[in-house]
Amino acid sequence: MNFDEIQKTWQSPHNRPDTARLEKDKVKFVTDLRRRRRGNLLFLGLVLALLLLFTVKLGLHVVLPDPGSKTVDPGREWGVIPFFALPWAGWFYMVRLHWRQHVRHPNYDRSISASVSALLDENSSERKRYKVIAALLVASAVMLPLIVYQLREVGKAGDEILIPALGIYPAYVMGVLILSTVYYRRKLLPRKRELEALLVTYGET
Amino acid sequence: MTSHEHNLCFEQWLGTHSAVLHHVANGFAEGADRHDLMQELLLAVWKAVPAFRQGAKPSTFIYRVAHNAALTWKRSQKNYQKRVDGFEASPLRETLAMPESAGRECETLELLYVRIRGLPPVDRSLILLHLDGVSYAEMAEIHGLSESNVGVRLTRLKQKLSDAMKEVSHELR
């Protein structure tokens, strides 16, 4: 079969999409799209709401303490400040990564090879994000004993805080780290290799 | 661009260029994966609508978006075998399969897709674009390659595909 015959076969009416099938695909696509959007918005909203809630609550407690409750003494309870600053530091770092990616690839949609290159950079950013999240979690787990010590010193916490702070939280951090490592090795690294291989083929003739 | 304009543009493109997506989905995936890839292609085109610059050629834009999505598409491994089995057993397969009455042409077409899927990803994309009648200059623009590079690759690819299809012709006889 020569190439002219191949082209003739390609132009056959059988090589056209089935209208009913295309309609089904469209319906499924619209449903999926709505679900994805709702899911993304819900996740982002939830994270931001939690972050704001804790920060505002802590800020209010420092600025306007309840008359009945003990005020925060920053000189003796300073450990809580860097602890609550950690998620914000992570958030700002991720925004910076996102922005840098945007600046480095302004014309990522110029061609497929440019898009693959941008995707490879995005993969690198995602790997950095995972490392940063892991480092922040470890830092928070390391800081927690200091906070517990300070709270016990000022009489704001008793023995009931020991198991959640020194047992449950470190176990949670360990669990997240294990899952992140699995994801990193099974998804992100193979994806990096795939994209690198694809980019290499653009240099071949 | 308003939401209404976005949807309208997407609908228009789909009406005019659905064959492109069909060819890409078949050229990059088989069986039940075709539906997954088709969904990815639809999503990629839908997301890309606001990035379309007025004055540009919609067909080149759609080719670039669709081929880009297919080249970087990663088949979901989750429940893969289960889905393949489900697909094999479903009546949907008959709808998607080339009708028996169409005979040899459909069989040849299916085998042509098999041979195309056997090519390395970028070569697969180039041959699909060539079969769709896209010019060398447009292919170079879509992939970010030089025109001469596209020409060299296609000369080799056309020969390779013709040889592979010669074997198929013998098999079909």
Overall morphology of chain A: elongated
Number of strands of chain B: 0
Largest sheet of chain A: none
The CATH class of the largest domain in chain B, by name, is Mainly Alpha
Terminus-to-terminus distance of chain A = 25 Å
Radius of gyration of chain A: 26 Å
Helix content of chain B: over 70%
How many β-strand stretches of chain A?
A: 0
DSSP helical segment count of chain A: 5
What is the chain-wise order of helices and strands of chain B? HHHHHHHHH
**Spatial gap, N to C terminus of chain B:** 55 Å
In the residues of chain B, how many domains can be counted?
Answer: 2
The profile of the biggest β sheet of chain B is: none
How many domains of chain A? The number is 2
Determine the CATH topology of the largest domain in chain B. Answer: Rna Polymerase Sigma Factor, Chain: A
Backbone structural class of chain A: mainly alpha
**Would you identify the regions of chain B where 5 or more consecutive residues have pLDDT less than 50?**
90-101
Helix coverage percent of chain A: over 70%
